[in-house]
Amino acid sequence: MALRPIAPLPAGARQKLVLQREISRLLSPLAVPLMGIALRCALGYRIENLRGFRREYRRICLERDGPLIICANHLTMIDSCVIAWALGSPWWYFRHFRTLPWNLPERSIFAATHYRRMAIYALKCLPVERGGNRAEITEVLSRLAHAVSNHEVALIFPEAGRSRTGRVDLNSAASGVGRIYRCVPNCRVVCVYLRGDHQDGYSGMPVRGERFRGSVSVIEPKTNYRGLRASRDIARKIAQRLVEMEQEYFDDRK
Amino acid sequence: MDQTEIFEQVVKILNPYVKNQDALKGISLATHILDDLKVNSARLVDVVLEFEDAFDIEIDDDDVDKVETVGNAVELIEAKIG
């Protein structure tokens, strides 16, 4: 499978990324526990088999020191926070800061005010305008790919937005995740399926006191295609794995 | 294949993805695919893959970033056909 860089990242953009990472690292001993407290205490969320989730993510991270992309189903606006909380404790992220995933939140929602912009900056977020200027989107993807190639972990929702059907939609799998995967050698994909018991469709926030269940698995998708078709094929294979995990989730609940 | 034929084929491929059918009436090389025709950005990949099949060409990820207007698509296809 030919590796194809998205676009070389200019020195200035690289420095900005390093600066954001270091500021995030400095703030993480405060920001990460605060996020966990907000989810657990203020919103009353619980994750079934939290220890198992974290043990599996630790195993994956320590098994091989290489690039990782987390791909997950997407149903609520705070999925990335819940996933980060599910996968690691504040102490784990303090010791292994690279494993706190970079995110691509929607700019119009999460970067609408100065306060929000500062908050997401501190939590390793690169805001992006979905459906916006393609050059700008490519620039953000390049920054994310650069971070992943430096063994930072990235969290991407292959469907690009919250699933309107409430189920993982194979046809919505955008090519972006495939594009990043293809340009980072030896990259693995950590598929995370997480869903609240009361989550029938997509929503803004999960209900208060929600209990989340799900699973984690690792794949290294391959493709025989080239060019854009290869990126789309990779994205579909990742989404397909999430569809299978979704089926397992519903089978377990029967 | 000349530019007019490519243009007609491009419009035909775009048709099922267009949400703003009114914009199709006055479609030209300057028509913006996402802003004017309101094609879903995630579906743009499907459109470009259909270009690949229809014109028997291979398009890279980077090339997709250059496709903003119908004219960009026609130029890209012309260049790939050689």
Give the low-pLDDT segments of chain A: none
Number of helices of chain B: 5
The geometry of chain B reads as globular
Assembly category: heterodimer
Written as H for each helix and E for each strand, in order along the chain, the element string of chain B is: HHHHH
CATH H-tier superfamily of chain B: ACP-like
| Rg of chain A (C-alpha, Å) | 17 Å
Number of strands of chain A: 5
CATH architecture assignment name of chain B: Orthogonal Bundle
> What Rg of chain B do the Cα atoms give?
11 Å
Number of strands of chain B: 0
How would you sum up the global shape of chain A? globular
CATH topology call of chain A? Glycerol-3-phosphate (1)-acyltransferase
Low-confidence stretches of chain B: none
Helix content of chain A: 40-55%
> Which CATH first-tier class of chain B would you pick?
Mainly Alpha
Mind describing the biggest β-sheet of chain A?
Answer: 5 strands, mixed
State which percent range the strand residues of chain A make up. Answer: 5-15%
Outline the fold blueprint:
The complex is a heterodimer of chains A (254) and B (82).
Chain A: H1 11-42, E1 46-47, H2 50-63, E2 68-72, H3 79-87, H4 90-95, H5 107-110, H6 114-122, H7 134-149, E3 153-156, H8 176-183, E4 188-196, E5 211-219, H9 227-253
Parallel strand pairs in A: 1-5, 2-3, 2-4
Antiparallel strand pairs in A: 4-5
Chain B: H1 3-14, H2 21-25, H3 44-55, H4 61-66, H5 70-81
Helix pairs in contact in B: 1-3, 1-5
Describe it.
The complex is a heterodimer of chains A (about 250) and B (about 80). Chain A contains 9 helices and 5 strands. The termini of chain A are far apart. The mean pLDDT of chain A is about 90. Chain A has a single domain, classed as Glycerol-3-phosphate (1)-acyltransferase (3-Layer(aba) Sandwich). In chain A, helix 7 (about 135-150) crosses helix 8 (about 175-185). By secondary structure, chain A is α/β, with parallel strands linked by helices. In chain A, about 50% of the residues lie in helices and about 10% in strands. In chain A, strands 1-5-4-2-3 form a 5-stranded mixed β-sheet, sandwiched between helices. With about 80 residues, chain B is mostly helical. Chain B has a single domain (about 5-80), classed as Non-ribosomal Peptide Synthetase Peptidyl Carrier Protein, Chain A (Orthogonal Bundle), CATH 1.10.1200. Helices cover about 55% and strands about 0% of the residues of chain B. Chain B has helices at about 5-15, 20-25, 45-55, 60-65, 70-80. In chain B, helix 1 (about 5-15) packs across helix 3 (about 45-55) and helix 1 crosses helix 5 (about 70-80). Chain B is globular. The relative contact order of chain B is 0.20. The interface of A and B includes residues 6, 135, 160 and 232 of A.
